[in-house]
Fold this sequence. Notes:
Enoyl-CoA hydratase/isomerase family protein; 17% strand; Enoyl-CoA_hydra/iso; 3-stranded mixed beta sheet; Enoyl-CoA_hyd/isom_CS; ClpP/crotonase-like_dom_sf
Amino acid sequence: MIETAVDGGVTRVMLSRPTRRNAFTEAGLRALRSAVTGAETPVVLLTGAGDAFSAGADLAVVAGLDREGAREFARLGQSVATAIEEAEAVVVAGIDGPARGGGVELALACDVRVATPRATFAETGVSLGLFGAWGGTARLPRVVGEGEAMDLALSGRTVDADEALRMGLVSRVVDEPAAVAAEIAANDPAALPVLKRRMRDDADQAVQHAREADAFADLVEQNASDLSW
């Protein structure tokens, strides 16, 4: 279900199961984790094939799970989202079409989220008596704030690209997400993972400041001969 292609400094990782709107089985989740963590470029662009980004978990799979299987499926999805978040590469979610449930959750784990005008977003699990369990209950409030997160999760409503931009769920609405990935990849490849780690650091402020200063000093030492306006 995963297809990869390298273009310069960007590895494009495509969710390619369009007949199921790129919904995930266990094998698909593992393949996505391997593709992202195994990328050797400074930037990864995550996209979906066909007319959707991802419908999230394949409900045909979920319906067949017992209690322990459901717990393990949730833990697998969480581990994939964490792997995306902690990947060495900067991961850009290019959302062109519907993102639902786990598709939203995987996008939330990415470092940058951009949408095309065709993108829509919804946490539809509540309508089925479920909820997103791939880390979304922690990441969604962090990204859009508690009020917006509660509204999205409890209502199950669908928001379009413009509303997603307003609430901070995405940072840009663009015609071609690949252009954003290329823009990021055009920067210094050594600085990108350092900046990502610093922005992701959730230690207390004093520790963050010390780590930030050390990381800055490392980069200055590495690049001093190239620094000029």
